[in-house]
């Protein structure tokens, strides 16, 4: 079977790599692999602290994917490591503390691993936290990874496994007799395949030829700062008088501060207001952030869906398989998505853990 993967971000490359290692002939098409949401992602692997109330199915998929990460990284050659210090979520005023209390009760009722920390306990765990922090939660299993390092490793592994990378913009899906038969490149040439895997992230809902898909761009602006090596052990999430901010340390002496969430379509503007708000809140949470060098600001688009969960597996168009709509959890859901789609391509069925995420009946 020949497979064309439309999109060379983390999801597309991981699917291609896993499919190629199972003997399939795979081509990935992308004009700038890894320059979409994968480039902006902070790399939180956070089934607890990223999921909202009621997102139990998504949390189960997220936990499944997190459990797959160690094996996935070992198969990749062990060059990319998880940061396993967990996540501390802090609050500043009485309303923030009430919100953390509600979250804590909800996690405990759901049987999820979480502990309540006093401000002192939080600062002993993360000494750089502001003395103004009033209290915290600790999610010991919410880890992180460096998405850019992961993308580079996946690209190498995919090529080593025989995946061909075609650096071209995709103009449309090729459809013949009501079946996806490949992709039309910007040159007009058609790259044919028995199956097309749609992994175009936020652009998945906008590719001519695809059936209507409920995927929309959700803009996120993010900052990278240099010089904070050792400042934080793990991820810090904060409610700063009701505003959300997160700080994720990475091994290359960067601290990632994110992120806005804006319904502005494919607007790529980095705004002064967003940079100001993110820095103000990050400095409030960790005062030493003010001393770091601001080295990058970036806006990209999450592939949002109506229920915040991905679209996996068969689509309404024969020959077209979906691996998209990962919204805020693309990095986390990469291993589970890759394995599920590789199962579908080689065995004809999705594993049970992925079955709730097909399009069937979800959006009526
Ligand atoms: N997962 C973090 C974000 O989407 O901002």
Automatic annotation (TrEMBL):
Q: Per its UniProt entry, what is the enzyme's top EC class, as one word?
A: oxidoreductase
Checking SUPFAM superfamilies in the record gives: FAD-linked reductases, C-terminal domain, FAD/NAD(P)-binding domain
| Catalytic activity from the UniProt record | glycine + O2 + H2O = glyoxylate + H2O2 + NH4(+)
- Spell out the InterPro entries in the cross-references: FAD-dep_OxRdtase, FAD/NAD-bd_sf, Gly_oxidase_ThiO
Identify the pathway: Cofactor biosynthesis; thiamine diphosphate biosynthesis
What is the superkingdom listed in this entry's lineage? Bacteria
Which N-terminal residues, if any, form the signal peptide?
A: none
What EC designation does it have? 1.4.3.19
**Pfam families from the entry?**
DAO
Sorted keywords for this record are: Oxidoreductase, Thiamine biosynthesis
Q: Enumerate the spans annotated as FAD dependent oxidoreductase domain.
A: 3-344
This chain belongs to the protein called: glycine oxidase
**Organism, per UniProt?**
Asanoa siamensis
